[in-house]
Description:
alpha+beta, 6-stranded mixed beta sheet, 3 helices, 6 strands, 22% helix, globular, NTF2-like_dom_sf, SnoaL-like domain-containing protein
Amino acid sequence: MQAASAEYRSALDAVCDFYAEPMDMRFFGVVLRSREDMKRFYGFLHAHVLESVRVLNFAASDTLTAVDAIVRVEGISDLDRTTLDANGAPGLFPIRKGEVQEMRQFIFYTLREGKIANVECALMPSG
Length: 127
């Protein structure tokens, strides 16, 4: 795995600033509880895939933000089941370099004092 660029690390730090500590982020077997967990996981994931999110629907209040989105991942290197499991991502799908996966997801962000404290995600069945 290639080391993350200083620009990427800076962007990831900026994203982490939106999250409360401790946090409770759970999706597809991934559990993140801290800023360091987020940086480790996303540093790992983005070494293997390019990820983008297309928001279809969005709703927000002072305590909750809900997003209905298409999450697109494109393999930039092969990512197999063994590597996913070893990096705490048992519910994510293996992907090969050049392969594209698109998944409709419903993501709920619970806010505490203006920061994201809890994230829950559901995958819409394909078909």
